[in-house]
Amino acid sequence: MTSSASPAVAKPRFRGAETLGKSPQQSILNVLRMACAEALRQPDFAEKLQTIKQRFYVRDFNGIFLDPPSLPVYTAQYVPRRALCYYEIFSCPEIQEILRSRPTIYCLGAGSGSELVGFSAASCTALAEPAASGCAGQPIVVHSQDYTDWSAILGELERAVRYKWGISKSQVEYEFSKGDLLSITPDIESRVSSAQLVTAMFVFNELFSDKANAMNFVKTIVKCTTPGSYFLLVDSAGSFSSVQVAGKNYMSYMFFDSLRQFFTPVISEDSKWFRHAHGLDYPLAIENMRYFIRLYRRN
């Protein structure tokens, strides 16, 4: 007597720009649903999420990000809208051109994985096109940095991205390192120097809880980025990005805008809305986002 096994489910193949299908936003949410499945099943998910929101309200970031049980819940709740928004940003022609050069991308404060998912999705188009001269055969490297250990979360996201979209290690490599942007180390400086694109997405404003450290961050970006590389700055377009210096209010992007001798703006928008598509399927509500964006090229 012979037994018949159920046929194995074939892993999706990488199909370039068609990898994400007719609804790229839904495809991204499917990746996140897979990666966050265990967190979403937690019976006390709502309770943990409420605690996270309360800590955000009192700006107790360490209470969230230094608490390991909070990290999967945070990712399941907050990464979807940012990953969708970042995919839209990374799909713009200017960043697609950078991706075709198969860059090393150093993503600051990116432990929760929004940049990993957004760049992975946007890379599907870039990888299907000819690489820039001299870059054929090189992978895109997405290096996520944060001050607490997100490696388990990022590992789940990488597994979901590779399974759902068929992205191979020869196409995109993922790395992670711990480091505190409030205390710049030689390792952080070295990684900024070796990257062709450095991103600070919804990070810069948080640094202004200590203006001295925020200014040290600006100095590091100026000192360590290399000519021809790019720096992408994205943050809230609301009052949260307003910083008081010497009794006057400034939007945080003005600090980099003033450094024209070092940076040439490639993209410059003070306020832009990301609005997700209707009818998306995800267990949690997804909000729209208003943000500012600056893409600078280092002179």
Would you count the extended β strands for me? 9
Low-confidence stretches: 1-8
Alpha-carbon Rg, integer? 20 Å
Please, what is the average pLDDT? 92
Largest sheet: 7 strands, mixed
3D structure, described in words:
The structure is a single chain. By secondary structure, this protein is of the alpha/beta class. Helices cover 41% and strands 20% of the residues. The chain has twelve helices and nine strands. The chain has helices at 24-35, 37-40, 45-57, 61-65, 70-90, 93-99, 114-127, 151-165, 186-194, 204-207, 211-224, 254-257, and strands spanning 104-108, 140-146, 172-178, 197-201, 230-236, 242-245, 248-251, 263-274, 289-298. The strands form two sheets. It has a seven-stranded mixed sheet with strand order 3-2-1-4-5-9-8, with helices on both faces. A two-stranded antiparallel sheet has the order 6-7. Strand 1, helix 7 and strand 2 form a beta-alpha-beta unit. Helix 3 (45-57) packs across helix 5 (70-90) and helix 7 (114-127) runs parallel beside helix 8 (151-165). The longest helix has 21 residues, at 70-90. The protein is globular, with a radius of gyration of 20 Å. The termini are far apart.
Task: Give the gist of this structure.
This protein is of the alpha/beta class and 299 residues long. Helices cover 41% and strands 20% of the residues.
Write the layout of secondary structure elements.
Blueprint: H1 24-35, H2 37-40, H3 45-57, H4 61-65, H5 70-90, H6 93-99, E1 104-108, H7 114-127, E2 140-146, H8 151-165, E3 172-178, H9 186-194, E4 197-201, H10 204-207, H11 211-224, E5 230-236, E6 242-245, E7 248-251, H12 254-257, E8 263-274, E9 289-298
Parallel strand pairs: 1-2, 1-4, 2-3, 4-5
Antiparallel strand pairs: 5-9, 6-7, 8-9
Helix pairs in contact: 1-5, 1-8, 3-5, 5-7, 7-8
